[in-house]
Write a structure and sequence with these properties.
Layout lengths: L40 H11 L4 H10 L6 H9 L7 H13 L27 H8 L11 H16 L4 H9 L30 H15 L15 H19 L24 H15 L4 H13 L26 H9 L1 H22 L11 H4 L4 H14 L8 H20 L3 H5 L2 E3 L8 H7 L3 E5 L4 E6 L17 E4 L6 H17 L24 H16 L20 H14 L2 H7 L4 H8 L4 H19 L1
Parallel strand pairs: 1-2
Antiparallel strand pairs: 2-3, 3-4
Length: about 650
């Protein structure tokens, strides 16, 4: 062959130019003892590669020989901390590297702090939205498991994490698929923050809209209109809630009797608030709700009490609006023409009859009412612990355990710090979701807002106290739902947060770096907690729904112990929102002191409210407290 001739590439025996590749060594010998074990995955991988004399090229050849699917650039980026393994194939490569260096299984994989769900885990046939929710909670080897085990894992995750697993959550999920409530204009009925009233395609008829506007105006105005009398005023939240409840009632009356809702089939244009003076309408409605649920609840009793209030002598709005009687129309199977004529004959007598009927029916319903949504059910593992607050703190510790590296994953780290602070401040303050969500912030070195300004805003503020040398939460009593409670005595709420468990360091880091990263270039709402601003949503302020979902997401990821992934702090916990922290605080104080009064101090409420709604004080807890006192006698005697 001449010097210029090309090699015969078709001949497999033709020798390739250059040095032949070195054989792949399955287990290279370490060059020094394994004394250093960094916590960081990237540093640990780089250290083991150097210890075994590997480069990205040689390690890539070794992994490829074991059927590992990756490339040399990826390994180099892992070593330098530019990327992290996020797919099942990538995690298999980590297992192969551990095997190559003869490390104990999980040595490198255990150092990964997942800030995102593992990609490519969702089973076939699952929609995109559900696949995104499932991904975080599926084990890394989900695809390699048998079909039976995959089905078992999916069923557990859907029941215990995604839906919540309680009877109420399952009922609500099913009922929400068939919306029937009327939609009122915001000019007629105020809407609760983050919530929509009624169904989008069921606008209330104009006549009913006008009547609702008059009722809300009557109950919400600063001064009563001339010629009217009232007792008590509705705030914006109460007005919105009452509007939602009445929207459900009229939506049920208008819903088709043949559909899923099985309503009364009334003509929407025939509906009027005058129907609230007719006992047959109320009897139909509460029985319709009882058949829909399977039992009566306290909700029906509260609605009947609303009917009693609206027909009350002197102060009831319906009592003072006799002109409504002309708007009554029959509803087949519910209200007859004879019933209407009886009401129209004497409006005052009809209102008095309805008032007595509502009070009587409310007592009957209260006697047989059952609890549909037990607020304690999702928290039972925590409330049954000796130290409920200590048990709940495990969730915050789990958040810290999986804290992403802020240098490599700044936004994920910012979101994790925000979630940690939500949990910690919720436990320290014990306030309602609204007060925590709307809490403003005043950075160090700035002048805090005056109390009068906060009263007008009806919001609290987190500010630095030079006098106490700590972060202080100041909330005027006007910002609380129970502002008239004896707990406040018209005085503001003030609490200096304790610098425990790195709380101050987290607050400082959040305000100095993380909060600005979450805010991006959006307008600052001034609240301490803000959403992650993205291209599709430029509003950084949380509302009632989004704040609840943010809290619930933290519980799903870090609170619920997942036996398939090993993540999560508490076994048996179910998803819940921020309001549940009040149950935890009240129950903890009850277990320690046995005092409903002291428990009420923890959640800014009254002992009766704690006993009725928040504290889970079981007989065994009471017996344990008594035994603790009595056993001291035996200790002295011994």
């Amino acid at each position: 062959m001449s010097a210029c001739a090309s090699p015969d590439l078709s001949n497999p025996s033709a020798r390739k130019r250059g040095r032949p590749p070195l054989p792949v060594v399955l287990h290279p010998d370490p060059q020094w003892p394994d004394d250093d074990d960094p916590e960081d995955f990237h540093e640990a991988l780089a250290g083991q590669m150097k210890r075994h004399g590997d480069t990205a090229h040689s390690l890539h050849r070794a992994v490829k020989s074991q059927d590992g699917l990756t490339d040399r650039k990826t390994l180099s980026e892992w070593r330098r901390g530019m990327k992290s393994p996020q797919t099942p194939a990538s995690l298999k490569v980590i297992d192969l590297i551990e095997f190559r260096y003869r490390l104990e299984p999980g040595r490198l994989r255990g150092k990964l702090k997942p800030h995102r769900a593992t990609k490519g885990q969702a089973p076939t046939g699952v929609g995109t939205a559900e696949a995104r929710r499932l991904a975080w909670h599926l084990p890394d080897d989900f695809r390699q498991r048998s079909a039976k085990e995959q089905a078992e894992i999916l069923a557990w995750v859907r029941k215990r994490i995604l839906t919540g697993g309680t009877a109420y959550s399952l009922y609500h999920s099913k009922a929400a698929r068939h919306r029937f409530a009327f939609r009122f204009d915001e000019a007629s009925v105020p809407t609760r923050e983050g919530r929509q009233t009624g169904s989008a395609n069921l606008a209330a008829p104009p006549q009913l809209q006008a009547e609702m506007r008059s009722l809300i105006q009557f109950k919400s105005a600063t001064l009563t209109d001339l010629g009217f009398q009232r007792s008590g005023v509705w705030g914006p939240e109460t007005a919105a809630q009452r509007g939602e409840h009445l929207a459900l009632l009229f939506g049920a009356l208008a819903a088709s009797s043949d559909g899923e809702v099985k309503g009364a089939g009334a003509v929407p244009e025939d509906l009027s608030l005058a129907l609230l003076v007719c006992p047959p309408v109320w009897d139909w409605y509460i029985q319709w709700r009882e058949q829909r649920r399977g039992f009566f609840t306290g909700w029906e009793s509260e609605m009947l009490l609303l009917a009693a209030a609206l027909t009350r002598v002197e102060f009831g709005w319906l009592r003072q609006c006799p002109w409504l009687a002309e708007r009554l129309r029959p509803i087949p199977g519910v209200l007859t023409q004879a019933d209407i004529e009886t009401v129209q004959a004497d409006w005052d007598v009809a209102c008095e009859r309805m008032n007595r009927h509502a009070l009587s029916r409310a007592r009957e319903v209260q006697r047989v009412a059952r609890v549909h949504r037990d607020p304690f059910e999702p928290l039972l593992p925590i409330l049954e612990a000796a130290s409920p607050v200590g048990e709940y703190l495990k969730i915050a510790e789990e958040v810290l355990r999986y804290m992403p590296d802020a240098r490599r994953h700044p936004r994920a780290a910012a979101e994790t710090v925000r979630g940690f602070l939500m949990l910690r401040l919720g436990l320290h303050l014990g306030v309602r979701q609204k007060n925590l969500r709307q809490m403003l912030v005043c950075p160090k070195g700035k002048t805090p807002r005056r109390e009068r300004e906060l009263e007008q805003l009806k919001r609290g503020e987190l500010r630095w106290s030079d006098r106490d040398g700590g972060w202080e939460v100041f909330i005027p009593c006007a910002a609380f739902k129970n502002a008239g409670s004896a707990y406040f005595s018209k005085k503001p709420f003030r609490l200096v947060l304790p610098d425990l468990g790195g709380l101050y360091a987290m607050i400082d880091a959040y305000l100095e770096r993380h909060r600005a990263l979450l805010l991006a270039n959006a307008n600052d709402p001034g609240t301490f907690f803000i959403k992650t601003v993205k291209a599709k949503s430029r509003d950084a302020a949380y509302n009632q729904t989004t704040f609840y979902e943010a809290w619930r997401l933290m519980i799903q990821r870090y609170g619920i112990r997942n036996p398939w992934t090993g993540r999560g702090a508490i076994e048996g916990l179910l998803p819940h929102g921020p309001h549940s922290v009040r149950d935890v605080l009240a129950t903890h104080v009850l277990k320690v002191t046995g005092s409903y009064e002291q428990a009420s101090y923890a959640i800014q409420d009254t002992p009766k409210t704690v006993a009725d709604h928040y504290g889970r004080f079981l007989p065994q807890d009471k017996a344990a407290l008594a035994a603790k006192v009595l056993n001291e006698v035996w200790n002295v005697a011994a």
